[in-house]
Amino acid sequence: MNKKSRLILSVFMIVTMILSLNITVFAEELVTDKIKAETIEIQILNSEDFSETPIPGMELENSNFRANNTIVPFLIRSGNTEEVEVYIHYAGTKMANAVRFKSLTLKECNLVLPEKTYKTFKPAPPYLYSTHTFPAGIIGSVKIGDILVPTNKSSVKVNTSDLQVFYMTEGWNSYSNIVGCWTLN
To answer: Which domain of life is it from (predicted)?
Structure first.
C-alpha cells in the first residue's frame, strides 16, 4: 500500500471514530434526558372488595336458593325483539367456577302441540361436554349463547343432559338436569 492510500485510510478511520463517539454521546444524552422516575400505585384487593351480585335482574329472592347449591337457567329478552340471551346461574355455599353439560335444548313451551326447538347447545367434536367458566365464587353466571324466540312467547322449555358444576375443592359434581318451562325476563 502506498503512502497516499494509507493517509486516506487513516483520515477515514479517524473521521469514522469521531462520528461514532458523537453519535453514542448524543444518543445517551437523549435517553438520559427523557428518563424520569415514576411511582406507580398498586391497589391490592381483598375478597371482600368484590361484589357477589349476579347479573342485574338475577337477584336471589329465596335464601334457600343459595344453601341448596342450585343451578338455574336465566333467559333475558333484548327489549321487544326476538333475541334472547341464555345464561346459567349458580348459587351455593361451595366455591365454583364452571358448569358443563352434554346438551342444553331450548324449545317452545307447549303442553298440547309438538314443541318447536329453538336451539340446542352441544359441545364441538371431539369434546364430550360443553364447558363454560365464570369467575370463582359462591355465586356465578355465565352466558351460554343467544336464541330467537317469537315476541308472542313469554316462556321457554329448558332441558339439559348430564349437567355438572366444578367445585374448587372437589372437582366436577353432577346436578339434577334442568327440565321445565322458564319465564323470559
So the answer is: Bacteria
Closest CA relative to residue 122, chosen from 108, 140, 104: 104
What's domain 64-183's architecture?
Answer: Sandwich (2.60)
Please report the sign of the dihedral spanned by the C-alpha atoms of residue 113, residue 116, residue 122, residue 125. Answer: positive
pLDDT digits (tens, 9 = 90+) for 76-98: 998 889 999 999 999 988 899 99
Domain boundaries of the chain, sorted by first residue: 64-183
- By three-state DSSP, how is residue 73 classified? strand
Q: Are 139 and 66 in contact (CB under 8 A)?
A: yes
Cα separation, 109 vs 184, in Å, equals 11
Tell me which residue has cell 318451562: 181
Alpha carbon 106 to chain centroid, angstroms: 23
In terms of pTM, does the model score above 0.70?
A: no
Residues with Cβ within 8 Å of 146's Cβ and at least 6 positions away in sequence, in order, are 83, 84, 85, 86
